[in-house]
Design a protein that fits this description.
This protein has 299 residues and is α/β, with parallel strands linked by helices. The protein has one domain: Metallo-beta-lactamase, Chain A (4-Layer Sandwich), CATH 3.60.15. It is built from 9 helices and 12 strands. The strands form 2 sheets. Strands 1-2-3-4-5-6-7 form a 7-stranded mixed β-sheet, with helices on one face. Strands 8-9-10-11-12 form a 5-stranded mixed β-sheet. A hairpin with an 8-residue loop joins strand 2 and strand 3. The radius of gyration is 22 Å and the shape is globular. The relative contact order is 0.11. The chain binds zinc ion. Zinc ion binds next to loops.
């Protein structure tokens, strides 16, 4: 009995020590940011069309656009993605240090958290759409929805050029057009560029995000009063864009895995998918309209 009481006391002390350790450690550990295993799963880099290459992970897209005067990188992804992006660029025979301009799809941590590190490594100029520029400069703290979510903050980065709807980003003969497709963020950007390969010109569209995230308030949103009107404008813009090559901020938008599988089976250019683009946009617009009707019905 004596022994067992001593063991009991020892156990009690251990539990107390553990509880104390938890109290001391917990405040320093922020809740982990939302994640998806496909965001960090490495993916073999590949050539898409012309001077455009995929250098992202299985689901977090990053694009390298090479030119004779240096390269453009679209999306820096997570802080932990930077070595992965660098490795992908090198596997394709290019160099991260040749990146002269950094762009993003939108100012959420899964597309922009690595920016500060990439700018430091490359000295590239950071060009971000009005509405997202302040968000990247505050490391996500001024985001209309996630500003208070410490787990979704990221290292702030200085913006060298604030873009507006229709602005062009030019480098070495390549022209990228920034389309403000807001709603998901206030400066969400869809990038387009014409690419010529083997005498054929393709309109490339990299969709920023047409998604209404869980918890987004589309009606009477004091932090973003025009959110619903912005989504409306976004769908008008996206439907009107000419698109042969359909790409986006996440591989899941455009069925990247299936398209790579088709290519592996011998299909020459699976990324030419104008019908897939239109049906994706139509489906996303319907999802927005359903959510809007639901929220309006609740008032
Ligand atoms: Zn997002």
């Amino acid at each position: 009995m004596e022994t067992s009481r001593r063991e009991c006391n020892a156990l009690f002390m251990l539990v107390r020590l553990f509880a104390l350790a938890l109290v001391l450690v917990l405040p320093a550990v922020a809740a982990p940011a939302p994640s998806n295993p496909d965001w960090t799963l490495p993916y073999p880099p590949f050539h898409i069309v012309g001077n455009i290459y995929y250098v992202g992970s299985k689901d977090l897209a990053a694009y390298l656009i090479t030119t004779p005067q240096g390269d453009v990188l679209i999306n820096s992804n997570l802080e932990s993605s930077v070595p992965q992006i660098r490795k992908s660029i090198e596997q394709l025979g290019f160099r991260l240090s040749d990146v002269k301009i950094l762009l993003i799809s939108h100012a959420h941590f899964d597309h922009a958290a690595g920016s500060a590190q990439i700018l430091k490594l490359t000295g590239a100029r950071y060009m971000v759409m009005d509405g997202d520029a302040s968000v990247v400069q505050t490391g996500g703290r001024s985001d209309f929805h996630y500003g208070g979510r410490e787990d979704m903050h990221f290292p702030p980065a200085k913006v060298d050029r604030v873009l507006h709807d229709g602005d062009e980003v030019r480098l070495g003969g390549t022209v990228l057009v920034a389309h403000r497709t807001a709603g998901h963020t206030k400066g969400c950007t869809t990038w387009t560029t014409p690419v010529t390969e083997k005498g054929k010109t393709y309109h490339v569209v990299i969709v920023g995000s047409p998604n209404v995230n869980p918890g987004y308030q589309l009606v009477k949103n004091a932090a973003y009063p025009q959110i619903s009107a912005d989504y409306e404008a976004t769908f008008r813009t996206l439907k009107a864009l000419p698109c042969e090559i359909f790409l986006g901020a996440h591989g899941s938008y455009f069925g990247m895995n299936d398209k790579i599988a088709s290519r592996n089976r011998g299909e020459a250019q699976p990324f030419v998918d104008p019908a897939g683009y239109q049906s994706y946009i139509a489906e996303r617009e319907q999802a927005f309209r359903d959510e809007l009707a639901k929220q309006q019905g609740g008032h």
